[in-house]
Amino acid sequence: MNEKKIFKVFKALGEPSRLKIIKLLSQQSMCVCELSEVLDMSQPRVSQHLRTLKEVDLVYEERQGFWTYYKLDLDEMHKVLKEFHDFLGADLNEIEGYEEIHHRLVNLPPKEEIKNKTK
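RE: above sequence
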C-alpha cells in the first residue's frame, strides 16, 4: 500500500458517520434502510457514506434477493492496519517521497538552537 492509499482510507474513516457505519458493520451485515434507521440518517446520505467506504475497499455489498447488504471487509481492514503499522516502522530514507524530509531531519540543529531561534 502506498501513502496515498493510507491517506484515502484514513480520510474516509475521519468522518464520524462513516466510522459509525464501520462499527455497525463490524457487528453484522446491514442494508441501507437498517443503517438509516439506526443512525437516524436519510437513506441517500447513508448510501453516499457507503460509496466512500467502498471506494477504499473497506466495505463490500452482497445481494440477497431484492436486498443489498453491506459488510465490513475485515481482511482489507487488517491489511490497512498492518501496512500502516509497517509505514510507521519504516525508516524515513526507505519511503519514497520522504528523502528530503529525512535529509532535513538528520541535519536538524540541536533543540537548544531551535528554541533560541523561536524566542
